[in-house]
């Protein structure tokens, strides 16, 4: 393993010596620091490549309430997840691209939110569920087709792509201008964030993945989801736990106007609380849930970033 890393590092240093622009940008001391950063990342990457990451998917069932525990679906790192990680390792090795992103981000962060920067640069794509995992959670087969879905806060649409083949019509909302452009390029119909819940449309699936902790009014969003969900429809909600709110758009202090009343400090305790104290009061009942890694493409320092995601499948409470 170490020999492969050293060979790749040697090639990079050789490029640095042969490229005046790189030399002038980093300087000799800077090149040493950069080389050390890349070397350390390569060592970590090799460890991840040999790891099955079972701990990304496990929960302590003894802490879950009995009603919730029996609805837990155990997943593992499947081929689609493995492929995403492989692309992360590959992109992290694009040294000159990563340097450009680093420089551009340092300038653009003065006047642009991080999500929009990623959209403009075409970086930082996310991964939540593979298509196979999505099918398992919704209990559908690969030939199943629904009429319509909406993905709230769809980002660049990479996560939406795992769900969209199962629906005739795909709608999305997004606050970031650059991300909206990417979604339109994928052929998704974009709805205004203030009009998607006006009652003119209802959906077989409402997807709300890692949005509630970034939303100014998460309680209102949940009630709107209930209102636009067709009878027999499903809601897919992903949450990074432990829960921490940070409103990126439309808030001066990054705090939400509405607060979710969540109890507990552990992943399992907060799963219990979300079902009992948040979803059920909003008129939604739990059908299934799982734990998966919320993955994001990285940079020169880290090939990918990972957070703990709880993913819930919900339905109308009166249908349970």
Automatic annotation (TrEMBL):
<dbReference type="InterPro" id="IPR007884">
    <property type="entry name" value="METL9"/>
</dbReference>
<dbReference type="Pfam" id="PF05219">
    <property type="entry name" value="DREV"/>
</dbReference>
<keyword id="KW-0472">Membrane</keyword>
<feature type="transmembrane region" description="Helical">
    <location>
        <begin position="6"/>
        <end position="26"/>
    </location>
</feature>
<keyword id="KW-1133">Transmembrane helix</keyword>
<dbReference type="InterPro" id="IPR029063">
    <property type="entry name" value="SAM-dependent_MTases_sf"/>
</dbReference>
<dbReference type="GO" id="GO:0106370">
    <property type="term" value="F:protein-L-histidine N-pros-methyltransferase activity"/>
</dbReference>
<keyword id="KW-0812">Transmembrane</keyword>
<protein>
    <recommendedName>
        <fullName>Methyltransferase-like protein 9</fullName>
    </recommendedName>
</protein>
